[in-house]
Amino acid sequence: MVIEISSVGLFYHPLFLKHLTGFNHPERPERLSSVLTLLEKEKVFSKVKLLEPEPASFSELTKVHSVNYLNYLKEATQKAGYLDADTVVSPDSFEAACLASGAVISAVDKILDGEIEKAFCLVRPPGHHALSERAMGFCLLNNLAIGAKHALEERKLRKIFIFDWDAHHGNGLQDIFYDDSSVLYISIHQSPLYPGTGNFNEIGEGGGKGFTINISVPPGSGDDFYLYIFKRIVVPIVNEFSPDLIMVAAGYDGHFADYLSQLNLTIKGYTEMTKEICVLASKNCDGRVLFSLEGGYNLEALSHAVLATLNVMASLGLKISEPFKETFITCVDEKKEKVLALVRKVQDRYWHI
Description:
Layout: E1 8-11, H1 30-41, E2 49-51, H2 58-61, H3 67-79, E3 81-82, E4 88-89, H4 93-112, E5 118-121, H5 143-153, E6 160-164, H6 171-176, E7 183-190, E8 212-217, H7 222-241, E9 245-250, H8 267-284, E10 289-293, H9 299-313, H10 333-347
Parallel strand pairs: 1-2, 1-5, 5-10, 6-7, 6-9, 7-8, 9-10
Antiparallel strand pairs: 3-4
């Protein structure tokens, strides 16, 4: 019997494990090794295209980051140590970061060249907090922003939708595209939580007004809250925007077992959100969608959530069980309506929601 190889590309490089942050640091190499172990156990590698990225070039990085910052970052990694209270580097960190950004660029190219339909970039260090001139929140280079700039400037796409489901607001992604109407950035994130940005009234500036949409939700929101907001806000706006490519800042730190948030999402929730994203991609951009790993710090929760995402993307047909017993209470329904009303109040002049 011939097994049909999936049209999903999984981008990974062993050098990602050499970005060393210390044994007790949340963003550590074991995050990826735990995912790889589970994917191997479930025989995923025989059903997706495992692809090794090339590093992003210096000129590709400068589409987002300044030359001064890149030179500083390269020098700082050689010295190793803390760039800020959260962000640690080691001698291989700069090369690993270039590969992480290169993975997103490679995924964009292979999707647009028709070699694959969907991509998952299993990368570290993550990127959505990185600013043009500053590393922060475990992030060195803004991987998705670099990939989006490549898609717009080199591959001549007109419109890209970036959906950020990480528990923490992607302040770097927001800042880089804040005045850009070619990128629709929507973030659902916990508030209050690091980095303290992502208020409802942060909507973009200049020609980019309305193209930044922040949906801050309270602790304890849970799956139903997320899916309710997704269907009533994200779906109609994305269909109206009609992107050429969808990118997802795929952070899994919203899982109820993760110790850096209190959102109470489950494996089922990530499964359903992935389904919704893939439906949007099928409807708007011929199925073209790219996921890039951001947060997620409980190893069991992270590995099962990534597997759940790939299970949907590649139609693997796996039955994935929640690795932890659910012991929490989610938010009451009236909070859903309050969030919906707040988003509509600031966005209804720009979108039909």
